[in-house]
Amino acid sequence: MTRNWAGNIAYDALMLLKPSSVEELQEIVSMTPRIRPLGSRHSFNRIADTDAVQVTVEKLPEVFEIDGSTVTVGAGVRYGEMVGRLHDAGWALHNLASLPHISIAGAVATGTHGSGDGNGSLATAVAGLQMVTAGGELLEIRRGDPDFDGMVVSLGLLGVVTHVTLDIEPTYEVSQHVFENLSWSAIHEHFDEITSSAYSVSLFTDWGDGASTVWLKSRNEALPELYDAVPATANVHPLPGLSGEFTTLQLGQPGPWWDRLPHFRLEFTPSNGEELQTEYLVPRTHALEAIDAVRALAAQVQPLLLVSEIRTIAADNLWLSPSHDVDCVALHFTWRQDIPGVTAFLPTLDDALAPFAARPHWGKLFETTPDRLMAAYPKLDQFRELAEQFDPTGMFANDLTKKWLGQS
Protein backbone atom coordinates (compact mmCIF):
# COMPACT_ATOMS: atom_id res chain seq x y z
CA MET A 1 0.00 0.00 0.00
CA THR A 2 1.45 3.36 -1.07
CA ARG A 3 0.93 6.37 1.19
CA ASN A 4 1.62 10.05 0.80
CA TRP A 5 4.49 11.71 2.65
CA ALA A 6 2.32 12.79 5.58
CA GLY A 7 0.77 9.35 5.94
CA ASN A 8 -2.78 10.70 6.06
CA ILE A 9 -3.69 9.10 2.72
CA ALA A 10 -3.43 5.48 1.64
CA TYR A 11 -3.76 5.57 -2.16
CA ASP A 12 -6.50 3.45 -3.76
CA ALA A 13 -4.36 2.76 -6.85
CA LEU A 14 -4.11 -0.92 -7.76
CA MET A 15 -0.46 -0.58 -8.75
CA LEU A 16 2.41 1.88 -9.10
CA LEU A 17 4.45 1.58 -12.30
CA LYS A 18 8.01 2.89 -12.66
CA PRO A 19 9.00 2.94 -16.35
CA SER A 20 12.71 3.19 -17.12
CA SER A 21 12.32 4.88 -20.50
CA VAL A 22 10.03 7.36 -22.21
CA GLU A 23 9.11 4.67 -24.73
CA GLU A 24 8.01 2.36 -21.93
CA LEU A 25 5.95 5.17 -20.44
CA GLN A 26 4.29 5.81 -23.80
CA GLU A 27 3.34 2.13 -24.01
CA ILE A 28 1.94 2.16 -20.47
CA VAL A 29 -0.19 5.25 -21.12
CA SER A 30 -1.44 3.93 -24.46
CA MET A 31 -2.63 0.68 -22.85
CA THR A 32 -4.05 2.02 -19.57
CA PRO A 33 -7.62 3.37 -19.44
CA ARG A 34 -7.11 5.31 -16.16
CA ILE A 35 -3.79 6.57 -14.85
CA ARG A 36 -2.44 9.30 -12.57
CA PRO A 37 1.13 10.64 -12.31
CA LEU A 38 2.67 10.46 -8.85
CA GLY A 39 5.45 12.83 -7.79
CA SER A 40 7.26 12.93 -4.45
CA ARG A 41 3.93 12.29 -2.64
CA HIS A 42 4.02 15.62 -0.83
CA SER A 43 0.39 16.45 -1.61
CA PHE A 44 -1.96 16.21 1.36
CA ASN A 45 -5.13 15.46 -0.61
CA ARG A 46 -6.03 12.82 -3.21
CA ILE A 47 -4.94 14.81 -6.26
CA ALA A 48 -2.53 12.02 -7.26
CA ASP A 49 -4.85 9.12 -6.47
CA THR A 50 -6.81 6.80 -8.75
CA ASP A 51 -8.68 3.51 -8.57
CA ALA A 52 -6.47 2.16 -11.34
CA VAL A 53 -2.78 2.83 -12.06
CA GLN A 54 -0.31 5.38 -10.72
CA VAL A 55 2.92 6.04 -12.60
CA THR A 56 6.14 7.75 -11.53
CA VAL A 57 8.82 9.10 -13.85
CA GLU A 58 11.55 9.05 -11.21
CA LYS A 59 13.25 6.06 -12.90
CA LEU A 60 13.54 7.65 -16.35
CA PRO A 61 17.12 8.18 -17.58
CA GLU A 62 18.89 11.17 -16.04
CA VAL A 63 18.78 14.39 -18.05
CA PHE A 64 20.67 17.59 -17.22
CA GLU A 65 21.15 19.84 -20.24
CA ILE A 66 22.03 23.53 -20.03
CA ASP A 67 21.21 25.47 -23.17
CA GLY A 68 21.80 29.20 -22.95
CA SER A 69 19.74 30.47 -20.04
CA THR A 70 17.66 27.31 -19.54
CA VAL A 71 18.21 23.85 -18.09
CA THR A 72 16.26 20.71 -18.98
CA VAL A 73 15.89 18.03 -16.32
CA GLY A 74 13.82 14.95 -15.66
CA ALA A 75 10.37 15.75 -14.34
CA GLY A 76 10.69 13.30 -11.47
CA VAL A 77 13.89 14.84 -10.15
CA ARG A 78 13.62 16.56 -6.79
CA TYR A 79 14.88 20.12 -6.60
CA GLY A 80 17.51 19.15 -4.07
CA GLU A 81 18.95 16.56 -6.43
CA MET A 82 19.82 19.07 -9.16
CA VAL A 83 20.44 22.45 -7.54
CA GLY A 84 24.01 21.74 -6.44
CA ARG A 85 24.91 20.57 -9.93
CA LEU A 86 23.32 23.69 -11.39
CA HIS A 87 25.25 25.90 -8.98
CA ASP A 88 28.53 24.15 -9.80
CA ALA A 89 27.89 25.00 -13.46
CA GLY A 90 27.52 28.67 -12.52
CA TRP A 91 23.73 28.88 -12.64
CA ALA A 92 20.73 29.24 -10.34
CA LEU A 93 16.96 29.17 -10.17
CA HIS A 94 15.07 32.32 -9.19
CA ASN A 95 13.56 30.72 -6.10
CA LEU A 96 12.87 27.53 -4.19
CA ALA A 97 10.12 26.28 -1.93
CA SER A 98 10.47 25.68 1.81
CA LEU A 99 11.49 22.08 1.14
CA PRO A 100 14.08 21.02 -1.47
CA HIS A 101 12.76 17.45 -1.19
CA ILE A 102 9.82 17.89 -3.61
CA SER A 103 9.72 16.81 -7.27
CA ILE A 104 9.91 19.43 -9.98
CA ALA A 105 6.90 18.22 -11.97
CA GLY A 106 4.70 17.87 -8.90
CA ALA A 107 5.58 21.33 -7.60
CA VAL A 108 4.95 22.91 -10.99
CA ALA A 109 1.66 21.08 -11.60
CA THR A 110 0.17 22.30 -8.31
CA GLY A 111 1.43 25.90 -8.34
CA THR A 112 3.87 25.49 -5.44
CA HIS A 113 5.88 28.59 -4.56
CA GLY A 114 8.56 30.15 -2.41
CA SER A 115 8.37 33.75 -1.23
CA GLY A 116 9.27 37.28 -2.27
CA ASP A 117 7.38 40.33 -3.48
CA GLY A 118 9.07 40.10 -6.88
CA ASN A 119 9.20 36.30 -7.16
CA GLY A 120 6.69 34.27 -9.10
CA SER A 121 5.83 30.69 -8.19
CA LEU A 122 8.16 27.84 -9.15
CA ALA A 123 5.99 27.24 -12.22
CA THR A 124 6.86 30.67 -13.63
CA ALA A 125 10.37 29.38 -14.33
CA VAL A 126 9.03 26.77 -16.75
CA ALA A 127 10.11 27.50 -20.33
CA GLY A 128 9.11 24.16 -21.78
CA LEU A 129 7.58 20.76 -21.06
CA GLN A 130 7.72 17.33 -22.62
CA MET A 131 4.80 15.04 -21.78
CA VAL A 132 3.12 11.81 -22.81
CA THR A 133 -0.51 12.58 -23.61
CA ALA A 134 -3.57 10.33 -23.89
CA GLY A 135 -2.94 7.56 -26.41
CA GLY A 136 0.80 7.59 -25.70
CA GLU A 137 1.77 10.49 -27.96
CA LEU A 138 4.87 12.50 -27.04
CA LEU A 139 4.31 16.27 -26.98
CA GLU A 140 6.81 19.09 -26.55
CA ILE A 141 5.61 22.60 -25.79
CA ARG A 142 7.50 25.84 -25.25
CA ARG A 143 6.63 29.21 -23.77
CA GLY A 144 4.78 31.16 -26.47
CA ASP A 145 3.01 28.11 -27.92
CA PRO A 146 -0.81 28.21 -27.97
CA ASP A 147 -2.31 27.36 -24.56
CA PHE A 148 1.11 27.12 -22.92
CA ASP A 149 -0.11 29.20 -19.98
CA GLY A 150 -2.86 26.64 -19.42
CA MET A 151 -0.56 23.64 -19.59
CA VAL A 152 2.01 24.38 -16.90
CA VAL A 153 -0.07 24.25 -13.70
CA SER A 154 -2.07 21.33 -15.06
CA LEU A 155 -2.95 19.21 -11.98
CA GLY A 156 -1.66 16.21 -13.96
CA LEU A 157 -4.75 16.30 -16.19
CA LEU A 158 -3.12 16.81 -19.59
CA GLY A 159 -0.57 14.01 -19.56
CA VAL A 160 2.45 12.60 -17.78
CA VAL A 161 5.30 15.13 -17.82
CA THR A 162 8.69 13.56 -18.57
CA HIS A 163 11.03 16.58 -18.83
CA VAL A 164 10.88 20.18 -17.65
CA THR A 165 12.89 23.10 -19.07
CA LEU A 166 13.50 25.87 -16.54
CA ASP A 167 14.77 29.43 -16.80
CA ILE A 168 18.09 29.92 -15.03
CA GLU A 169 20.23 32.90 -14.07
CA PRO A 170 23.83 33.34 -12.93
CA THR A 171 24.45 31.81 -9.53
CA TYR A 172 24.27 34.03 -6.45
CA GLU A 173 24.64 33.98 -2.69
CA VAL A 174 21.97 34.51 -0.05
CA SER A 175 22.25 35.56 3.58
CA GLN A 176 19.52 34.56 6.00
CA HIS A 177 18.53 36.50 9.13
CA VAL A 178 15.74 35.75 11.58
CA PHE A 179 13.97 38.36 13.69
CA GLU A 180 11.80 37.48 16.67
CA ASN A 181 8.94 39.14 18.53
CA LEU A 182 7.43 41.19 15.70
CA SER A 183 4.09 42.51 16.94
CA TRP A 184 0.78 42.42 15.09
CA SER A 185 0.62 46.19 15.29
CA ALA A 186 3.93 46.43 13.41
CA ILE A 187 2.63 43.97 10.81
CA HIS A 188 -0.51 46.04 10.31
CA GLU A 189 1.28 49.35 10.10
CA HIS A 190 4.27 48.24 8.01
CA PHE A 191 3.21 45.13 6.11
CA ASP A 192 4.52 46.28 2.73
CA GLU A 193 7.82 47.46 4.20
CA ILE A 194 8.31 44.14 6.00
CA THR A 195 7.62 41.92 2.99
CA SER A 196 9.85 44.05 0.76
CA SER A 197 12.75 44.15 3.22
CA ALA A 198 14.55 41.18 1.61
CA TYR A 199 14.54 39.04 -1.52
CA SER A 200 12.41 36.44 0.25
CA VAL A 201 10.45 37.04 3.47
CA SER A 202 8.44 34.62 5.62
CA LEU A 203 6.47 35.37 8.78
CA PHE A 204 5.70 32.54 11.21
CA THR A 205 2.81 32.84 13.66
CA ASP A 206 0.26 30.91 15.71
CA TRP A 207 -2.41 33.61 15.10
CA GLY A 208 -2.66 34.46 18.78
CA ASP A 209 -1.84 37.71 20.54
CA GLY A 210 1.85 36.82 20.76
CA ALA A 211 4.56 38.02 18.43
CA SER A 212 5.64 36.60 15.08
CA THR A 213 9.01 35.46 13.77
CA VAL A 214 10.32 36.85 10.47
CA TRP A 215 12.82 35.09 8.20
CA LEU A 216 14.67 37.34 5.76
CA LYS A 217 16.61 35.82 2.86
CA SER A 218 18.71 38.57 1.28
CA ARG A 219 20.76 38.75 -1.91
CA ASN A 220 22.19 42.24 -1.75
CA GLU A 221 19.68 44.01 0.47
CA ALA A 222 21.00 45.83 3.52
CA LEU A 223 19.80 44.30 6.78
CA PRO A 224 16.96 46.49 8.07
CA GLU A 225 15.90 47.33 11.57
CA LEU A 226 12.62 45.46 11.70
CA TYR A 227 10.45 47.72 13.85
CA ASP A 228 9.89 46.11 17.26
CA ALA A 229 11.41 42.74 16.30
CA VAL A 230 14.85 41.72 17.56
CA PRO A 231 17.51 39.65 15.73
CA ALA A 232 17.74 36.00 16.76
CA THR A 233 21.05 35.03 18.34
CA ALA A 234 21.01 31.36 17.26
CA ASN A 235 19.61 29.26 14.44
CA VAL A 236 15.89 28.81 15.04
CA HIS A 237 13.29 26.35 13.79
CA PRO A 238 9.84 27.49 12.61
CA LEU A 239 8.32 25.37 15.37
CA PRO A 240 9.12 26.66 18.88
CA GLY A 241 11.23 24.25 20.87
CA LEU A 242 12.65 22.30 17.91
CA SER A 243 16.33 22.33 17.05
CA GLY A 244 17.62 24.78 14.46
CA GLU A 245 20.12 22.19 13.22
CA PHE A 246 17.56 21.03 10.64
CA THR A 247 17.16 24.50 9.10
CA THR A 248 19.32 26.24 6.53
CA LEU A 249 21.99 28.43 8.11
CA GLN A 250 20.91 31.77 9.54
CA LEU A 251 22.69 34.57 11.46
CA GLY A 252 23.64 36.30 8.21
CA GLN A 253 26.18 33.71 7.09
CA PRO A 254 26.28 33.90 3.26
CA GLY A 255 25.88 30.74 1.27
CA PRO A 256 24.80 29.47 -2.15
CA TRP A 257 21.22 30.20 -3.16
CA TRP A 258 20.21 26.54 -3.03
CA ASP A 259 21.37 26.21 0.59
CA ARG A 260 19.59 29.32 1.90
CA LEU A 261 16.32 29.82 -0.02
CA PRO A 262 14.66 26.68 1.42
CA HIS A 263 13.89 26.68 5.13
CA PHE A 264 15.13 23.13 5.64
CA ARG A 265 18.42 21.49 4.81
CA LEU A 266 18.48 18.86 2.09
CA GLU A 267 20.36 16.31 4.18
CA PHE A 268 17.66 16.23 6.86
CA THR A 269 14.05 15.11 6.67
CA PRO A 270 12.39 18.26 8.04
CA SER A 271 9.86 16.33 10.12
CA ASN A 272 8.51 12.85 10.47
CA GLY A 273 5.57 13.72 8.24
CA GLU A 274 2.97 13.60 11.00
CA GLU A 275 1.28 16.80 9.94
CA LEU A 276 -1.38 18.14 7.58
CA GLN A 277 -1.22 21.30 5.48
CA THR A 278 -3.64 23.86 4.08
CA GLU A 279 -2.86 27.04 2.16
CA TYR A 280 -4.85 29.88 0.67
CA LEU A 281 -3.53 32.70 -1.50
CA VAL A 282 -5.38 36.01 -1.35
CA PRO A 283 -4.86 39.11 -3.50
CA ARG A 284 -2.35 41.38 -1.82
CA THR A 285 -4.93 44.16 -1.61
CA HIS A 286 -6.91 41.96 0.81
CA ALA A 287 -3.94 40.70 2.83
CA LEU A 288 -4.57 42.48 6.12
CA GLU A 289 -8.31 41.82 6.00
CA ALA A 290 -7.68 38.12 5.43
CA ILE A 291 -5.11 38.04 8.25
CA ASP A 292 -7.64 39.64 10.59
CA ALA A 293 -10.28 37.10 9.52
CA VAL A 294 -7.98 34.23 10.49
CA ARG A 295 -6.97 35.91 13.74
CA ALA A 296 -10.66 36.10 14.62
CA LEU A 297 -10.68 32.29 14.44
CA ALA A 298 -7.60 31.89 16.65
CA ALA A 299 -9.47 30.01 19.37
CA GLN A 300 -10.42 27.36 16.80
CA VAL A 301 -7.13 27.43 14.88
CA GLN A 302 -4.62 27.15 17.71
CA PRO A 303 -5.62 23.73 19.12
CA LEU A 304 -5.16 22.24 15.63
CA LEU A 305 -2.06 24.17 14.60
CA LEU A 306 1.65 23.47 14.65
CA VAL A 307 2.62 26.73 12.91
CA SER A 308 1.46 29.10 10.17
CA GLU A 309 3.54 30.91 7.57
CA ILE A 310 2.71 34.11 5.70
CA ARG A 311 4.52 34.73 2.39
CA THR A 312 4.16 36.87 -0.74
CA ILE A 313 4.14 35.76 -4.39
CA ALA A 314 4.22 37.84 -7.58
CA ALA A 315 1.49 37.61 -10.19
CA ASP A 316 1.80 35.35 -13.25
CA ASN A 317 -0.12 34.38 -16.39
CA LEU A 318 -0.62 30.68 -15.66
CA TRP A 319 -4.29 29.77 -15.76
CA LEU A 320 -4.55 27.59 -12.64
CA SER A 321 -1.79 29.23 -10.67
CA PRO A 322 -3.06 30.47 -7.29
CA SER A 323 -1.27 33.74 -8.12
CA HIS A 324 -2.78 34.02 -11.61
CA ASP A 325 -3.02 37.66 -12.67
CA VAL A 326 -2.61 39.17 -9.19
CA ASP A 327 0.13 39.65 -6.58
CA CYS A 328 -0.75 37.44 -3.64
CA VAL A 329 -0.18 36.80 0.03
CA ALA A 330 -0.16 33.13 1.04
CA LEU A 331 -1.59 32.02 4.38
CA HIS A 332 -0.19 28.58 5.12
CA PHE A 333 -1.29 26.27 7.93
CA THR A 334 0.72 23.31 9.16
CA TRP A 335 -1.73 21.33 11.26
CA ARG A 336 -1.32 18.63 13.82
CA GLN A 337 -2.33 15.31 12.30
CA ASP A 338 -5.78 15.55 13.82
CA ILE A 339 -7.66 14.45 10.71
CA PRO A 340 -11.20 14.67 12.17
CA GLY A 341 -10.54 18.05 13.79
CA VAL A 342 -8.88 19.62 10.75
CA THR A 343 -11.48 18.19 8.38
CA ALA A 344 -14.30 19.64 10.49
CA PHE A 345 -12.64 23.07 10.60
CA LEU A 346 -11.81 23.46 6.89
CA PRO A 347 -15.29 24.71 5.82
CA THR A 348 -15.12 27.40 8.52
CA LEU A 349 -11.73 28.55 7.23
CA ASP A 350 -13.01 28.59 3.66
CA ASP A 351 -16.05 30.65 4.69
CA ALA A 352 -13.80 33.16 6.45
CA LEU A 353 -11.50 33.63 3.44
CA ALA A 354 -14.02 33.40 0.59
CA PRO A 355 -14.92 37.13 0.74
CA PHE A 356 -11.31 37.94 -0.18
CA ALA A 357 -11.21 35.90 -3.42
CA ALA A 358 -9.01 33.31 -1.71
CA ARG A 359 -7.52 30.57 -3.90
CA PRO A 360 -6.63 27.24 -2.31
CA HIS A 361 -3.33 25.52 -3.07
CA TRP A 362 -4.15 22.48 -5.21
CA GLY A 363 -1.86 20.12 -3.30
CA LYS A 364 -3.10 20.94 0.20
CA LEU A 365 -6.21 20.12 2.21
CA PHE A 366 -9.17 22.41 1.65
CA GLU A 367 -12.94 22.23 1.48
CA THR A 368 -14.75 24.65 -0.80
CA THR A 369 -17.55 24.76 -3.35
CA PRO A 370 -17.35 24.53 -7.16
CA ASP A 371 -18.85 28.01 -7.37
CA ARG A 372 -16.12 29.47 -5.18
CA LEU A 373 -13.42 27.73 -7.20
CA MET A 374 -14.94 29.07 -10.40
CA ALA A 375 -15.02 32.59 -8.99
CA ALA A 376 -11.46 32.35 -7.64
CA TYR A 377 -9.95 30.85 -10.80
CA PRO A 378 -11.40 32.77 -13.78
CA LYS A 379 -9.66 30.47 -16.29
CA LEU A 380 -11.08 27.28 -14.78
CA ASP A 381 -13.70 26.89 -17.54
CA GLN A 382 -11.06 27.41 -20.20
CA PHE A 383 -8.77 24.87 -18.56
CA ARG A 384 -11.59 22.32 -18.38
CA GLU A 385 -12.08 22.67 -22.13
CA LEU A 386 -8.34 22.20 -22.63
CA ALA A 387 -8.35 19.07 -20.47
CA GLU A 388 -11.29 17.62 -22.38
CA GLN A 389 -9.50 18.36 -25.64
CA PHE A 390 -6.32 16.59 -24.51
CA ASP A 391 -8.06 13.79 -22.64
CA PRO A 392 -11.59 13.24 -23.97
CA THR A 393 -12.08 9.97 -22.03
CA GLY A 394 -10.88 11.37 -18.72
CA MET A 395 -8.10 8.82 -18.31
CA PHE A 396 -5.99 11.25 -16.25
CA ALA A 397 -8.87 12.49 -14.08
CA ASN A 398 -10.02 11.27 -10.69
CA ASP A 399 -12.99 12.02 -8.45
CA LEU A 400 -11.29 15.00 -6.83
CA THR A 401 -10.22 16.71 -10.06
CA LYS A 402 -13.67 16.10 -11.57
CA LYS A 403 -15.22 17.83 -8.56
CA TRP A 404 -12.85 20.78 -8.90
CA LEU A 405 -13.50 21.18 -12.63
CA GLY A 406 -17.23 20.52 -12.42
CA GLN A 407 -17.00 17.38 -14.56
CA SER A 408 -19.38 14.45 -14.36
Give a summary of the structure in a few sentences.
The protein has 408 residues and is α+β, with helices and mostly antiparallel strands. Helix content is 24%, strand content 24%.
Secondary structure blueprint with pairings:
Elements: E1 15-17, H1 22-31, E2 35-37, E3 53-55, E4 64-67, E5 70-74, H2 79-88, E6 91-92, H3 104-110, E7 126-132, E8 138-142, H4 148-151, E9 160-167, E10 169-170, E11 173-182, H5 184-195, E12 200-205, E13 212-218, E14 230-231, E15 255-256, E16 275-283, H6 287-295, H7 298-301, E17 305-313, E18 328-336, H8 339-353, E19 359-360, H9 370-376, H10 380-390, H11 399-405
Parallel strand pairs: 1-3, 2-3
Antiparallel strand pairs: 4-5, 5-9, 6-10, 7-8, 7-9, 11-13, 11-14, 11-15, 12-13, 12-17, 16-18, 16-19, 17-18
What would you say this structure looks like, in words?
- The protein has helices spanning 22-31, 79-88, 104-110, 148-151, 184-195, 287-295, 298-301, 339-353, 370-376, 380-390, 399-405; strands at residues 15-17, 35-37, 53-55, 64-67, 70-74, 91-92, 126-132, 138-142, 160-167, 169-170, 173-182, 200-205, 212-218, 230-231, 255-256, 275-283, 305-313, 328-336, 359-360.
- It is globular, with a radius of gyration of 20 Å.
- Strands 11, 12, 13, 14, 15, 16, 17, 18 and 19 form a nine-stranded antiparallel sheet that branches.
- The two termini are 28 Å apart.
- The chain is α+β, with helices and mostly antiparallel strands and 408 residues long.
- It has two domains: 64-171, Uridine Diphospho-n-acetylenolpyruvylglucosamine Reductase, domain 3, CATH 3.30.465; 173-371, Alpha-Beta Plaits.
